[in-house]
Amino acid sequence: MIIYPPVHSNLYILHPAGSKPKIEDPTEDLILRVGALNQGVTCTATGKPTPKLSWFKNRNQLHAFLTTNGSLFHQIQKVESTHGGEYICKAENVYGTDEKVFKYVVEGDDANYGALVGIAVTVFLITLIGAAVYVKFFRKEQVSCPPCRPYTSLQTVKNTLFL
Q1: Closest C-alpha to 51, from 75, 23, 16, 15
Q2: Interatomic CA distance for residues 127 and 119, integer angstroms
Q3: Domain 2-108 classified CATH 2.60.40.10?
Q4: Rg (CA), the chain
Q5: Which residues, 6 or more positions from 57, have their beta carbon under 8 angstroms from its beta carbon?
Q6: What's the pLDDT tens digit per position in 8-48?
Q7: What pTM, to 2 d.p., does this model score?
Q8: pLDDT tens-digit profile of 115-131?
């Protein structure tokens, strides 16, 4: 217990013992890749009473998720080059404040990521169109299956090949 005398009085007021917040996370730098999904850092602090946690970047408070154990998780849904920089986790209670700087390092750039996605989509579309053109123009004729159960490709029935 901590005893505080009021000003100009012989009476003493008992206050429960408390402690200044202390951020416990060992992580300092987080390396992220452009285009990565759901990346982030959890900030955990101890103190009595339980500290209030907040995330900041460039003096702006960020949206974060409170976890079941009382930690605060800052999440980036899709990493872009602008997400790089210093992020601050701040813990506060009536006994004080603690802050920790986390550095987010972003590798790659948005232009290259966009180009790779564009190439993948283009290759997929060319393959899809090529298959449709093949089916439409290069298949000679459709051979109907005799009135029986359907056959998978490359099965033979009475020396007839069904494709």
Answers
A1: 23
A2: 12
A3: yes
A4: 32
A5: 85, 86, 87, 88
A6: 556 655 556 899 999 987 777 888 999 999 988 899 999 99
A7: 0.57
A8: 555 565 565 556 656 65
